[in-house]
């Protein structure tokens, strides 16, 4: 009797174990498959393509080393390489210097109007790269640039004071655009430092500059190095500035060359791929060193439990100078670009601000935009893509994170690395490899919105992973184990325990991905076709057509919409007590 | 030498309210003496120390060292911390991890406004490192030091600048118990030998009693008693000090009258009348609290023929190695007694507890004053 009951119970236990394992492995299997499909396959095809001739209707693809031969034998490529390095190094150093100075002023001094520094964390989200560049063309072009015209007027010369169509102009615009990122990274570094490190230097008799140089900066060295690397990688893979400022005057870098190789007739996919592979190698090295740095970065880590911020340094009268520096910067990065867009959005055709032009204010550009045939479609596409990819990414990465953080399954590090892999893809390279992949695998995706969906998922997978990892690490193992001890199956405990606990992180990551994918341009530009445009593509097309005032009107609306979205995100974040994961 | 007068320091907290961290703090430290700020965590010791250092700007008060005023709200003087020439050891030690041991200690000389030449720096730093016993590790990376060594290095760094005043913020609290005891002796020896005027902050009463020439006990931002270690321990002025410094039994009592001996009074308590000691004159009818340290009680199996002896029952006992702690039930009261392990009655047996009148300290009953 008792034996019977025992074996029945045993069978039940065995069965539920089976079910549990089954579902668990199915879910795990599917996520591995998804990640591998999205992150790995396009990469493989990119490599493959770089060794083949383009497939045409009459001729199949053939193996060749020509692409690399052509890419590496020409003097052109040497110039490309030098240009890219010069551009990326310049941007990294410039953005780092500006961002670090601001971070130091904000964290360590009593500069007035500090509340404004907060805006530095949202500007890069609110003003998309392409609009920033266009605004700076209005400001700094040699012919129509307002800055030149004003200065020429003042001094009564024809001398061209600033020219954004030059390598220095490119560095200036890109560097300004990335400086808030440097600001955020260095702020985090300064905050993690034990205030006593600097205070003890001060007690030793060191003055402000000696403390800043010999202690603050030297101690932040790992963070400095990591920040410069990130900035370097971001700028070598950036597309907008090289395309809009470099291409017209023949200053090419890798990204703009890839774009040009695709867009010439016949398009040189093989050549573009070999450039792309080279670029990928550079960014991989950068990302590798950066991740090495952040994993072993705790040699200098001086975090202490004490929550109080260090007392700020009294700059005395210099604090007005500091405030002036900050206001100047604020002018360059937000006020001027936005005002110039706003101005041009109320003009019938682009003209420089003047009394005469003031009389010509009109709402025509807005009327034009609202009746623009592809606008409604593109807004819809942008929204669908952003919401869809954010949702899929957050769900998939929550499972991946769970596997990586909570289980002991062998090979889980591989999953982690696979999902982080897209981090090294420049947007344009990603677009290229996905394009190649679906060109050869004709499953009806090419030319539809699905191909962009695939691109977005791949591109932003690492962001989702980062947000989820942060919150997953905070969930104690025992919370889940006690659910299991209470008799919950794996699926139930994942759904009822893990997901709800992850919710704040999920929400934060979701909103962030929505915002960044709405602004996506570099990957979309090789993948869109009529009917699948997104908003940033419409802006791009308007620029190509020379419809500057209409572009400005759309740009102004776009910025306002993004601003509302970001404010909403901040509000939600505050309400749910979400900690920033970036 | 150091003189702090009516110091008030406040912080804004996250909600924009002001936290009154140090209130009306005044004390003097004579040249070459070690002065301790003692109190529970959050009572404002660090704040007071940092105000002296110049790392916080007080709201009002005056701080001077010798003839030199470094802060005065009245005369609007504030000398920046890097110009005060005070050596400071932080609780976290704040050893710079990107420098060697030597570099850490040499830093104050390298940044000094009066240039010191290399040979001079070498000589001074090695001498100080020798004093704290780190000279053989001079070229080692600072991150490769143990906790105790880091503590010595922090001290060495504060000493190389030949400071007017040495400020120590819980310098031993991050060390393990054994090391802490050893460092106590060393700190005391160093301070006494170099005759450094020192302000020492700690929440550990043992440390304070062992090291100090004088102690200020702080509570909720205020100094509640200043005195020599023995005074503080044996003659607490109020219940907080008696409770915080060591442990104490408290008995509410009412004064009946004076005894023949000086400063001894007869008081009435819940367990009976007893004789108690008081510094301040008392008059009959005053409400007081009698504080008695557990180690100042005597337990015996037979009634002793001393005054202040009561009969009780052993309620519980704890064997703690060097002594045994007993809870003795006297009527409704529980008293703590600490005695040598040689006397060890069973739980439930009858014992007699004796209290030396000199050790029964009558202190004003703040609680009952407030109630009245
Ligand atoms: N930088 C600060 N900002 C706000 N409040 C502070 C700061 N430093 C200390 N406090 C507050 O002041 C009070 C006294 O703190 P502190 O002097 O550090 O105490 P102690 O050193 O005695 O533990 C505490 O309530 C503490 O929370
Ligand atoms: Mg403290």
Q: What does this 3D model show about the protein?
A:
The complex is a heterodimer of chains A (582) and B (372). Chain A is mainly α and 582 residues long. In chain A, 72% of the residues lie in helices and 0% in strands. The N terminus of chain A is likely disordered. Chain B has 372 residues and is of the alpha+beta class. The model of chain B has no long low-confidence stretch (mean pLDDT 90). Chain B is elongated and about 75 Å long. At the A-B interface, helix 8 and helix 9 of A face strand 7 and helix 4 of B. The structure holds adenosine-5'-diphosphate (ADP) and magnesium ion. Magnesium ion binds next to helix 1 of chain B.
Features:
heterodimer, A: 582 residues, mainly alpha, MetI-like fold, B: 372 residues, alpha+beta, six-stranded mixed beta sheet, five-stranded antiparallel beta sheet, 21 strands, 36% strand, binds adenosine-5'-diphosphate, binds magnesium ion
The secondary structure category of chain A is: mainly alpha
Determine the mean pLDDT of chain A: 85
> Mean of the pLDDT scores of chain B?
90
Largest sheet of chain A: none
User: How does the overall form of chain A come out from the CA principal axes?
Assistant: globular
Largest sheet of chain B: 6 strands, mixed
CATH architecture of the largest domain in chain A: Orthogonal Bundle
* Assembly annotation: heterodimer
Count every helix of chain B, treating DSSP H or I runs of 4 or more residues as helices. 9
Can you give the helix content of chain B as a percent range?
A: 10-25%
Structural class of chain B: alpha+beta
């Amino acid at each position: 009797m008792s034996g019977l009951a025992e074996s029945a119970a045993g069978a039940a236990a065995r069965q539920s174990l089976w079910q549990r394992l089954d579902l668990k492995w199915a879910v795990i299997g599917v996520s591995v498959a998804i990640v591998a499909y999205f992150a790995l396959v396009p990469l493989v095809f990119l490599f493959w393509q770089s060794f083949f001739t383009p497939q045409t209707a009459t001729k199949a693809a053939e193996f060749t080393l020509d692409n690399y031969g052509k890419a590496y034998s020409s003097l052109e490529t040497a110039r490309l390489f030098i240009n890219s390095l010069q551009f990326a190094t310049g941007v990294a150093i410039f953005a780092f210097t500006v961002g670090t100075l601001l971070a130091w002023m904000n964290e360590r001094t009593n500069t007035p109007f500090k509340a404004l520094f907060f805006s530095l964390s949202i500007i890069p989200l609110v003003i998309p790269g392409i609009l920033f560049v266009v605004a700076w063309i209005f400001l700094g072009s040699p012919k129509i640039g307002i800055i030149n015209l004003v200065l020429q007027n003042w001094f009564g010369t024809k001398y061209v004071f600033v020219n954004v169509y030059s390598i220095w102009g490119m560095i200036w615009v890109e560097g300004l655009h990335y400086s808030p990122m440097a600001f955020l990274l260095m702020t985090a570094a300064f905050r993690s430092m034990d205030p006593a490190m600097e205070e003890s230097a001060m007690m030793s008799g060191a003055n402000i500059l000696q403390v800043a140089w010999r202690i603050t900066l030297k101690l932040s060295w790992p963070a400095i190095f990591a920040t410069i690397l990130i900035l370097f990688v971001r700028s070598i893979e950036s597309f907008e500035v090289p395309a809009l400022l470099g291409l017209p005057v023949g200053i090419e870098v890798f990204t703009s060359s890839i774009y040009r190789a695709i867009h010439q007739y016949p398009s040189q996919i093989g050549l573009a791929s070999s450039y792309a592979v080279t670029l990928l190698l550079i960014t991989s090295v950068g990302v590798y060193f950066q991740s090495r740095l952040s994993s072993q970065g705790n040699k200098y880590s001086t975090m202490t439990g004490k929550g109080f911020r260090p007392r700020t340094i009294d700059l005395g009268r210099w604090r007005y100078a500091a405030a002036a520096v900050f206001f100047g910067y604020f002018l360059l990065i937000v006020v001027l670009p936005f005002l110039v867009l706003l101005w041009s959005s109320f003009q019938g055709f682009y003209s420089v601000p003047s009394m005469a032009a003031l009389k010509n204010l009109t709402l025509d550009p807005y009327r034009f935009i609202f009746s623009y045939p592809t606008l409604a479609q593109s807004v819809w596409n942008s929204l669908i893509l952003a919401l869809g990819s954010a949702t899929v990414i957050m769900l998939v990465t929550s499972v991946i994170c769970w596997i990586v953080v909570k289980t002991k399954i062998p090979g889980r590090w591989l999953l982690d690395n696979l999902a982080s892999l897209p981090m090294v893809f420049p947007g344009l390279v990603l677009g290229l490899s996905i394009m190649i992949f679906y060109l050869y695998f004709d499953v009806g995706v090419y030319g539809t919105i699905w191909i962009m969906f695939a691109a977005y998922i791949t591109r932003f997978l690492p962001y989702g992973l980062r947000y989820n990892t942060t919150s997953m690490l905070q969930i104690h193992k025992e919370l889940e184990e006690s659910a299991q001890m209470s008799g919950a199956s794996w699926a139930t405990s994942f759904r009822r325990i893990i997901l709800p606990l992850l919710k704040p992180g999920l929400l934060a990551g979701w909103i962030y991905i929505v915002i960044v994918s709405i602004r996506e341009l570099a990957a979309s530009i090789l993948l869109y076709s009529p009917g699948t445009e997104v908003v940033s593509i419409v802006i791009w097309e308007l620029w190509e057509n020379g419809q500057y005032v209409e572009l400005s009107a759309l740009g102004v609306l776009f910025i306002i919409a993004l601003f509302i979205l970001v404010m909403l995100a901040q509000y939600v974040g505050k309400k749910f007590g979400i900690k920033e994961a970036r | 030498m150091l003189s702090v007068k009516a110091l008030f320091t406040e912080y804004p907290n996250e909600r924009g309210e002001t936290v009154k961290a140090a209130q009306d703090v005044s004390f003097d430290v004579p040249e070459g003496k070690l002065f301790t700020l003692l109190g529970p965590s959050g009572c404002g010791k660090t704040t007071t120390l940092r105000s002296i250092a110049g790392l916080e700007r007080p709201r009002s008060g005056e701080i001077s060292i010798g003839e030199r005023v470094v802060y005065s709200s009245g005369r609007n003087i504030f000398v920046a911390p890097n110009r005060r020439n005070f050596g400071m050891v932080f609780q976290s030690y704040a050893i710079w991890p990107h420098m060697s041991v030597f570099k850490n200690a040499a830093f104050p000389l390298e940044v000094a406004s009066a240039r010191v030449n290399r040979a001079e720096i070498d000589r001074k730093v090695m001498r100080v490192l020798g004093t704290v016993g780190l000279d053989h590790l001079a070229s080692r990376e600072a991150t490769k030091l143990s906790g105790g060594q880091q503590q010595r290095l922090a001290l060495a760094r504060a000493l190389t600048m030949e400071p007017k005043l040495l400020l120590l913020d819980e310098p031993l609290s991050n060390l393990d118990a054994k090391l802490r005891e050893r460092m106590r002796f060393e700190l005391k020896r160093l301070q006494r030998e170099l005759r450094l005027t020192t302000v020492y902050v700690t929440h550990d009463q043992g440390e304070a009693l062992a090291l100090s020439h004088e102690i200020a006990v702080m509570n909720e931002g205020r100094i509640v008693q200043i005195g020599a270690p023995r005074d503080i321990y044996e003659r607490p002025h109020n219940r907080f000090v008696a409770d915080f410094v060591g442990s104490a039994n408290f008995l509410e009592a009412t004064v009946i009258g004076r005894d023949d001996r000086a400063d001894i009074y007869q008081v009435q308590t819940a367990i009976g009348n007893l004789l108690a000691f008081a510094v301040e004159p008392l008059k009959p009818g005053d409400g007081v609290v009698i504080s008695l340290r557990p180690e100042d009680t005597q337990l015996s199996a037979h009634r002793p023929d001393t005054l202040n002896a009561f009969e009780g029952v052993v309620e519980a006992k704890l064997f703690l190695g060097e002594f045994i702690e007993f809870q003795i039930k006297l009527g409704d009261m529980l008293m703590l007694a600490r005695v040598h392990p040689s006397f060890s009655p069973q739980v439930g047996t009858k014992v007699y507890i004796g209290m030396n009148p000199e050790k029964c300290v009558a202190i004003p009953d703040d609680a009952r004053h407030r109630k009245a």
